[in-house]
């Protein structure tokens, strides 16, 4: 089954143009500074750049799974990233500090020899999580955040939260005291809400009231997909509310799900949105704002679980993410802002030191493999079989 989405197609990945009417409209609505002439000059400079040395990035939203799938995908993330916030939605979910410590040990055991990759663990928030568990998590030194999945919102979220303002409020108050960030999958699960509106409605009905009620709570709205999310992030003080952004939501719009037939390897949650939302997110991340940082949401599934009558949500991008982020920033004339997005804004938000090692992105064409094979099957990566222009290399 041939997928997928060609980055060479003009509609598949529309290039940001600093003078387009759409861009002008977004600039006005978002109040994001952008000088069209300066942007055009930056694009010209970016097209001549052949090599970019930068601080080694971190991935602030990563699914590593477990078992043989963990062994298959971990080398890709460990090669390109210094650290990663590891998602807790396993079966069973990682709901306690003891489970998080054990999961971390299982990751470290299968790291490639000599790798310095550091998995930063998270807890899966439930209606039954206790304030005492948050204290234990902070004392552990290995748990760095708590993940909010509305029950039923995405993969393995059936044990998620059903009553955030009732059952979870004492836990959130303790997170404020412990300076423990809340990572949010920002979608409502009400079946009466259109799937393309679930992020917007979540912001209006859950996230805005939550931040107003607990203004000192550090919140990361993960994998944002809409102009509504950008407006929300921009409306709060820098340092308390931030967002991660994925390659897929920067490069693909909802047409990518259907062009040439149903494309299961472009299906993720939150689902891809209209082009105007994609453009808004590009403008936000390439503006230089410190509120946005890299979070791939790389989510591997065995190929048969994607190409079936009820396919799983998730895009595997760990092996191509840095190349794709560079593509986005180059087309926006903002390669000078790429390092902050990939390597500075995340650790600064979490209060962690920036990485001391370096990585180099070279202007060198390379072909993305069609699949990656492991003991239980195959994984299809994002932009499978396509040629990309930026190649990450060790310094």
Automatic annotation (TrEMBL):
Record keywords: Hydrolase, Metal-binding, Pyrimidine biosynthesis, Zinc
One GO cellular component term noted in the UniProt record for this chain: chloroplast
Enzyme class: hydrolase
GO biological process, one term: 'de novo' pyrimidine nucleobase biosynthetic process
A matching Pfam family: Amidohydro_1
Residue ranges annotated for the Amidohydrolase-related domain, each copy included: 59-358
Signal sequence annotation: none
Pathway recorded for this protein: Pyrimidine metabolism; UMP biosynthesis via de novo pathway; (S)-dihydroorotate from bicarbonate: step 3/3
InterPro entries: Amidohydro-rel, DHOdimr, Dihydroorotase_CS, Metal_Hydrolase
Reactions accelerated catalytically: (S)-dihydroorotate + H2O = N-carbamoyl-L-aspartate + H(+)
Keyword RNA-binding applies: no
HAMAP family: PyrC_classII
Enzyme Commission number(s): 3.5.2.3
Molecular-function GO terms, alphabetical: dihydroorotase activity; metal ion binding
Family affiliation: Belongs to the metallo-dependent hydrolases superfamily. DHOase family. Class II DHOase subfamily.
Gene3D superfamilies per record: Metal-dependent hydrolases (3.20.20.140)
Protein name: Dihydroorotase, mitochondrial
Source organism per UniProt: Ananas comosus
